[in-house]
Amino acid sequence: MDRREGPGRLGRVVITRQEVATRVTDLGLAIRRDYAGRFPLFVGVLKGALVFAADLFRAAALPSSLDFMGVSSYGGDARPSGIVRLTADLSMSIEGRDVIIVEDIIDTGRTIAYLRRNLATRHPRSLAFCVLLDKVARREVEVTVDYVGFAIPDEFVVGYGLDHDGYYRNLRDVAVLDPSASA
Ligand code: IMP
Ligand code: MG
């Protein structure tokens, strides 16, 4: 693909910005209740969960910290390679902390499974997962998460942090790519 061509065309909106905002507020309140009296560390998974983590962290409005780690499972294509790599590590120790991993979407489940394995070896006090989107039908690895925003069908979506080929992370709604326009 010629990178100068820019992003592919967008298809229909599947979750509006208002629906996202309402759900994120609810998830934040649930976390606020569940972690009352504690000082959790939110960990956003870059880059897809950047926007969600920032909003959820504020919605929970707890005395808490925010850190990020980077993982990659895509080679720039719309399908995962099946291999998960750590591309950026946390800036602090999580030993003894109540850690909440914030992820954009569960597809095959490999990224969540990798993160759980990796982070469990660092001895957090507790480890919870909050994902905005869950593509239930695509699961290849059994994973359990604690908080889910929306279950969605097996369609490639972009927006609210999620990208295709680096584009559309700044879209406020969640939308599908126009399938007739894909290469
Ligand atoms: P998994 O490891 O197969 O569960 O894939 C999870 C990762 O793939 C997510 O963190 C996303 O970055 C990416 N991903 C999966 N489905 C989509 C999608 O529909 N749009 C954008 N990124 C996706
Ligand atoms: Mg991701």
For the biggest sheet, the summary is: 6 strands, mixed
Order of strands across the biggest sheet?
Answer: 4-3-2-5-6-7
What is the correct CATH architecture of the domain at 23-73 and 82-152? 3-Layer(aba) Sandwich
CATH level 1 name of the domain at 23-73 and 82-152 = Alpha Beta
Low-confidence sequence ranges: none
Mean pLDDT: 93
Span between termini: 8 Å
Overall geometric form = globular
Quantity of strands, as a count: 9
**Helical residue percent?**
10-25%
Commentary on this structure:
The protein has 183 residues and is of the alpha/beta class. It has a domain at 23-73 and 82-152: Rossmann fold (3-Layer(aba) Sandwich). Helix content is 22%, strand content 33%. It has three helices and nine strands, in the order E-H-E-H-E-E-E-H-E-E-E-E. Helix 3 (110-120) links the parallel strand 5 and strand 6 (126-134). Inosinic acid (IMP) binds next to strand 5, helix 3 and strand 8.
Question: Concise description?
Answer:
This protein has 183 residues and is α/β, with parallel strands linked by helices. 22% of the residues lie in helices and 33% in strands. It has helices at residues 17-34, 50-60, 110-120; strands at residues 10-15, 41-46, 65-74, 80-88, 98-106, 126-134, 147-151, 157-158, 174-177.
